[in-house]
Fold:
Amino acid sequence: MLFSQSCGLNCLIFAILLCVFLTGNHGMTVNTDTNVLPFPWDKMRLPETVKPQHYELLIHPNLTSLTYTGVVQILIEVEQDTRAIILHSKNLQISKAQLLESRHHRDLQTSEFEANEQIALFADGFTFEKGNHLVYLEFYANLSDSFHGFYKGRYTTNSGEVRMLASTQFEATHARAAFPCFDEPAFKANFTIRVHREPRHISISNMPKLRTVELADGLLEDRFDTTVKMSTYLVAFIVCDFHSISKKSQHGVEISVYTVPEKISQAEYALNTAVTLLDFYDDYFDIPYPLPKHDLAAIPDFQSGAMENWGLSTYRESGLLFDPEKSSSSDKLGITKVIAHELAHQWFGNLVTMQWWNDLWLNEGFAKFMEYVSVNITHPELQVDDYFLEKCFTAMSVDSLVSSHPISTPVENPAEISEMFDDVSYRKGACILNMLRDFLTPEAFKYGIIDYLKRHSYQNTVNAHLWESLTNICTSDGLDSGRLKLDGFCSRSRAESPASKWFMEDSVDVRAIMDTWTLQEGFPLVTVEVKGQEVILKQERYLKGEKSSKSSSTSSFLWQVPLTYITSHSSAVQRFLLKSEKDVLYLSEKVEWIKFNVDLRGYYIVHYESGGWDALITQLQQNHTVFSSNDRASLIHDIFQLVSIEKVPLDKALNLSLYLSKESEIMPVTQGFNELVPLYKLMEKRNMEELENQMKGHLVKLFKTLIDRQHWSDDGSVSERMLRNYLLLFACVRRYPSCVVNASERFQKWKESDGKLWLPADVSLVVYTEGARTDEGWDFLLEKYKRSASPSEKWMIKAALAYTPLTHKLQWLLERSLEGEIMKTQDLPSLVVTVSKNPKGFKLAWEFMKTNWGKLVKKFDLGSSAISRMAVGVTDQYSTREMLDEVQAFFSSLAEDQGSGLRSIQQALEKIQQNILWMDRNVPLLKAWLDMQSVQD
Ligand SMILES: [Zn+2]
Structure:
């Protein structure tokens, strides 16, 4: 071990503390025996009458013993006399508690209520009177073994040395596991942080370091400037040996990227991107970033993608580090988007925070949405707009289930709060904001959100605050009216702007519209029937697998749907606000076809009755470019959703997909794959090889022309490059001869050069995947994986290793990832899901998840997206009753603290039921259709 030298006074303190702890003597001032007095508070939420104002926090991690000590002094404002102060604390040993009073320090007793992660501070016969008080607490704990709280991390240098670090991840409810605090987003306060460290380390935190003081025992104390008013979940501190590079933004903010020393050469892209994006947001929001610096740190062990801590955002290494030689175009897009997301949070979330986690979407929906708004302007070459609609399709796939939930959902305990970090909060949130922007016009929307941010800076909000700011934008007094008048926006909007007709009406009630999208789950299916110049419109909830349009589970739902449409006679976007269950609109002339939800800017799907689909299919066959690529992708998406509810027969949907043989744009192609590939994935689970192979053969044939056009290089636009990667991977996995020959030749040459031969980044994954099919190739790739310093390359090799048909290798991968030495545990959730999609691995992944469920929950936390994605991802292509029974039996055997009540388990079960239903209804039709296709050849 690296950190074996003497650790001085710090170790001594720990030795003493440990003795005290082991003998059960917690000192004179502390009483943690909950039997003595009942805990004075029985609610999950803290009392509202005690508010923290300022924390002075000292943290001292020891990277040898992997423990830490801390001292926190909290200035609190008591609004109502109370006998006890209730605050959060989890797995911390409190060794001293005092009330600091001007004349003397009063010892306090502490009592802990573990179930609610709270402690109470009190003294016999004493009342905390209305006014300010200063509470002093000393505490210690182990650095966490998980990925949240104050947790330990490790990395190995090129020479094989193992180095430790300690970093934080507090969102949503883990600040309490690092220091005692009022750990709810509305308890905003200022934080003054100090960190003790050894000279060989550095420390970073939310604010710039003011100075470093030498301590008597050879340690150093870093003192950081006091933060602005902020929520506890945004506090961050890291002790490590990282290096950094820095640059000043145009607005004068010092931006730095931190990483382990050997990867510093991969930090430059992130630095430049962060500078560009922070400047963009400064201008766009018209509110300067309020801190003097922003650090971006790549953390070797990190569970989620990134975290927006104010002034110190943290990332997975693969989410921040870009290697110009080895990273692919999708890596570049991903890194740019994740930085755009975390920097958008500095305003949405950090400056203005949701009151409580039920409105998490105000943070996450906005950040997700702003990724597209900002990157589209700052990095047009990435064509980020091409990928927005995929977010909406993903959101719809969970939102179409009975187990979905409204965007704003009451939550109370930590597991429920963690479950809010899902596709509904992020993706549906982003999609309905995009719909609202299209409805209000981008200009009006922008002024509305500026008003919202300015009005509520350093405060907390609920949905209604946002809708208020977006209504009556021009009469708002919160905005700089001079600025609005100056660019003539308000005088222009009524007469000349392309604003929708509703915007020009005085009665636009943004809240009434948006409440229908945020307070009820699901989304509408709009049915369209054209009769001459009359268009009859109907809406109902789209519920997967639900046949009748009049079922009790769908009939009580009603939305205000901002419809848009184009026709065969006019590509100008027309608008209509559908408020009732049924309505009629009139066309100025008769048309051949009509297409609603233009470019998929709305969050709804459309069914065309009475020959409406036939006309669209004919147009796609004759000339598909009449529709935008987003419209083509949305037609593919919608028609297959309609098959699930038996509104459209499968053969009609398959007939529509035939036009794909002429398609070349990434979104319609990938959407075609998204709808068609699952058909044979479901068959894989049912032992119906003949039909499965027929379907696979059909798909290869459908995309043959496009596959043949691909070449093995990094040329072209980002979309073209990503599509190439996608198509070649599909072709090789399906053993398409020319692809297999090309990929194996390249792999052989690469292997002979001992990995020194340069491979185009966008086809590397295809080449590695081909190599990983044999034991020898797989072992060679593993050696390269171990030695690679590029997170992008590592990610590609790991994916290739998991695509192998060699079962024993898959088992090895899963076990090593759980252990965490060679394969990092942070990647385990995505690995388990990848293995489960492998025809040779789906049983293995399920057995592995079942056997290790307890360990996984402990490591990744109940309700976390890692656990949810595993539960759903491993099982969502199961298609038999036996599998359903097995999954049901396992999950229902779990205790509540092991996740029996998780929403993701309901989703998993519902998806399997849908698959069974789909197969039972459609297999004969699919077989007949495929037979007919082969006859026509
Ligand atoms: Zn976020």
Observations:
- Residues 903-936 form the longest helix (34 residues).
- Residues 1-35, 493-505 have pLDDT under 50 and may be disordered.
